[in-house]
């Protein structure tokens, strides 16, 4: 079955995204249904969006669930066979969806399709170990879709019928590597992932959350990056592999924390404390519990 505006739903997870979301929404065809999952209880945000966009439904999660869990809510709420996951800081070109629809005619059994980011490759291949390798494919200049092993989570189109029940995003990840985990599970289950080079997007990068909260976002990123890296490596390889991958970052973070503590740089001190804390919590098998404080 090929994709059309009638069997595609777009799912976007938001949090403090009021200043960026309209750029994304205005780039989407008006006949395509959109589900926004707002990671808060912001009723005003929901009411304003639903009044401005007739093809949009906004679900309030009531708390900050993270990207994977919130995306799962939208996927399960969708009534269509295909779901396009987008970040609120992604802008589609005029023909992006049409090119994805055309590509689906050529690819009958794909698991994931992805448009091509205009500036930085948003795809790659897995090495034998944890690391991923970005591969610049010459086929980007051709019309035909080409196979990859992972795509970035800010724009990925899921074929729900090709994904086994429960193979959506692992909700243990709060942020980072939930897309790599999904892609690796797809590949392990002999699924296929394609880049559609004629379907172009622009990812504004790190603009999802209002810049007013930049420090809190940075604190959260540093905590969750190392936690997710340890959890991902342990899940797909071994505890020992995760330890070898992450231990140097932990020791480096301790030293940098001590340095910034001595010179009283509060921001840097908190960054490296969080990086060390994320590793320590992952090492002990604790959940990804850290949440940014957006109340100030």
Any idea what the CATH architecture of the largest domain is? Alpha-Beta Complex
Structural class: alpha/beta
SSE string, helices as H and strands as E: EHEHEHEEHEEEEEEHEHHH
Which CATH class of the largest domain applies here? Alpha Beta
Instruction: Provide a count of the helices.
Output: 8
What's the mean pLDDT score?
A: 90
Estimate the strand proportion: 15-25%
Total domain count = 2
Q: How far apart are the first and last residues' alpha carbons, in Å?
A: 49 Å
**Largest sheet data:** 9 strands, mixed
Per the CATH scheme, the topology name of the largest domain is Spore Coat Polysaccharide Biosynthesis Protein SpsA, Chain A
How many beta-strand elements? Answer: 12
CATH superfamily membership of the largest domain, which one?
Answer: Spore Coat Polysaccharide Biosynthesis Protein SpsA, Chain A
Oligomer: single chain
Shape designation: globular
Radius of gyration, in angstroms, nearest whole number: 19 Å
What are the low-pLDDT stretches, counting only 5+ consecutive residues below 50? 128-135
Q: Assign a percent range to the helix content.
A: 25-40%
